[in-house]
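Minutes, project huddle
Topic: does the predicted pose make sense with glutathione bound?
PN asked that the exact inputs be recorded in the minutes so nobody has to dig through chat later. Recorded below.
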Amino acid sequence: MLKIIGHHLCPYVQRVVILMLEKDIAYQRIDIDLDNKPEWLLQYSPTAKVPLMITADDKVLFESQVICEYLDEISVGSLQPLDSFEKARHKAWGEFGTQMLNLIAKTIYQDSDKAAFEHSIQRLKQQLSIVEGEHSGGNYFSGKVFHLTDAIYASLFRYFSLLQKIVNSQILAQMPKLSVWQQHLSERKSVQAAVPSEYETQLIAFISNKPSYLAQRLSADTA
Ligand SMILES: N[C@@H](CCC(=O)N[C@@H](CS)C(=O)NCC(=O)O)C(=O)O
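Predicted holo structure (tokens), as shared on screen:
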């Protein structure tokens, strides 16, 4: 069976899992400890990152977007627009979402004081307001149909409930289209099933031992 090597909280793993659930692709998920990586990981992937896909006949792919596009291509139907320009436009906005994941990572791992953290949140809001201008206003990015781009943003939006507790305001305030989108994504079965039921508690535990302002705040709030 197709194997996905992952991590229980990784947003890049989530987009692959969401796609497989949406497309009914059978898979076995093996979550690893990224602080204590198995030695075989580097034999399979030059980046030693998750997700990693290993097929039944031992073919290997790394990079979440590449895995998603491959799985989308070999299975029935498509989670990408059929029109070439629309497909490319979706990929561009998906990449924009991925860059926002890098901002979230910065708050988790790097921003060591309040000012740096707040600056990252400000940049995040600015970038989200650009997406607000591009969004269709429907349930999903381009209307009624769920695409791979929606899976990318679903894994980004998942961080917001935690961040909002720290900044004490709604990340998507004054972004009505994104607020509706976030709500629809959070209700989608594939999106819910891509993470453990204890996701938020586990995310807090994961962040709490990192050297960041966010970690200090979370530790103080849960003490
Ligand atoms: N560009 C990669 C990013 C994957 C990635 O950064 N995964 C993180 C976990 S969320 C990881 O494996 N980190 C381990 C490390 O950097 O050593 C992708 O899209 O697959």
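Observations noted during the meeting:
- The pocket of glutathione is lined by residues 7, 10, 12, 34, 48-51, 63-65 (CB under 6 Å).
- The CA atoms of residues 66 and 164 lie 32 Å apart.
No decisions taken; revisit at the next huddle.
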